[in-house]
């Protein structure tokens, strides 16, 4: 009896069953999990960012409304600075006076101090034209055209101070020159301001190329 117990205790553990290939198989079946492949990040549908409106010579009207307004207001500066050249035309044709009456408050504010035109000149050039971070190229280009147009007023101003006949043919020529300067400024105001409000870039004669060279 004792020997039989010893034989049972000393008997080796049963071997695992062999499979068809002769390899030892585990007695327990283990679920074969597929080898983990490379992690696949979920695909995200990235919405395409809308194209940024170009403020550079864009005739499609994509310029933002604040830029249009600021650019249009800039053309008031040379007109108000040279409005005195229209004194003969306004006296002969009162229609122009009635047409420009809404600008009377701006004209009084502009001429409220002798320093106002100079301060506005510095503001337009250094705070707008040279300020690429705060203003778009659309605004800076139109502001530069307004500044260049005002610089051109130096020549008719010098002519009016040095050559002011009191009568005769010379006086008629002087009146015609003064009225021409005023009408040119008025056309620039209407054309430049109107184009800016529509989101288009106006190119004024004489000053457009100079403005292009100054604005990067």
UniProtKB/TrEMBL annotation:
GO cellular component: chloroplast inner membrane
Positions of transmembrane segments: 109-129, 141-160, 180-198
Keyword terms of this UniProt record: Chloroplast, Membrane, Plastid, Plastid inner membrane, Transmembrane, Transmembrane helix
Subcellular location: Plastid, Chloroplast inner membrane; Plastid, Chloroplast membrane
Pfam families: TIC20
InterPro entries cross-referenced by the UniProt entry: Tic20
Membrane disposition: Multi-pass membrane protein
Free-text function comment from the UniProt entry: Involved in protein precursor import into chloroplasts.
Similarity comment: Belongs to the Tic20 family.
Protein name per Swiss-Prot or TrEMBL: Protein TIC 20
Organism whose genome encodes this protein: Dichanthelium oligosanthes
